[in-house]
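Sequence in, structure out. Go.
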Amino acid sequence: MDAITFDGSCTPNPGGCMGFGWVVTLQNNSYSILGNDRLEKDTSNNALFAEYLALKKGMLEYVKADGQGPVTVMGDSQTVIYQMRGIYPVVDEGMGAIYRDITNIIREYGLDIYFRWVPRMQNQQADKLSKTKQKVRLIYPADREKLIDVHHAPVSANLRQKINAMNSVPFPANAMFKRLRCDHGDILSDKSLFELQKMAGERAVKMVSDAFAGKKAKNRYYQAQALMWMLRGLGMDLSIRKVSFDMQCKKEGNGSSNKRARKAKTQPSQAKKKMTSSGGRSKYYLNRRTYAY
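Output:
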């Protein structure tokens, strides 16, 4: 079945900025359509209102993408899901208007639809989109901007295949970014940032400078990495996302390493455990008994 997940947020609640996030997945495509939107502060804003608007926007995106059902709609708002299923009544007039808009979409397109409540842990992608200030822009493969055709790029056949696969979908999965590596280097790996900037051109330079702003060594390193991926044939938007993904993985990895180090530091060693065992007897007594003949 096709699937739509949605989530809404309001910070502070009520009366704050509302955020909406939705993910549309069509089974006949190899990608999902991600979207988000925001509304500025208003006294009438609240989290439930945001949830309903997120659902409506996700439904509109689904029919725009020629979704015809059957489709499962999932959200972590029990109130919205149960109201759409007819279990709870819709008493608020504002919510009722959006409720009618959604039911009209279902009737107009004759959708076979099922609403299912899911816990928040299973709705993380839509939740994250609803809280992202920067608007996610859907880029279809035909519209993706590239510096160089991957078939003419100086990369291995294996890497060319991976890059081509990523360029062919609007939203590559995290697993695709993880598998995309240039383990043994190539002719671009030895180029300086200045050389890469000359090869890539002003527009690409501006994109990476805005994405990884700063003159520190680490910022210049990230800019160089993004330009390398662009010059290998990866889409310009995906090149920036690839470097951002690597940054996040490195950050999470360092966090795990530090956590393990702290845990090891706080746990007493086996030798110390032995010395402090046996009813609190002294180190001297333990050693004397161990090494006595």
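Check: The chain has a mean pLDDT of 86. The longest strand covers residues 2-11.
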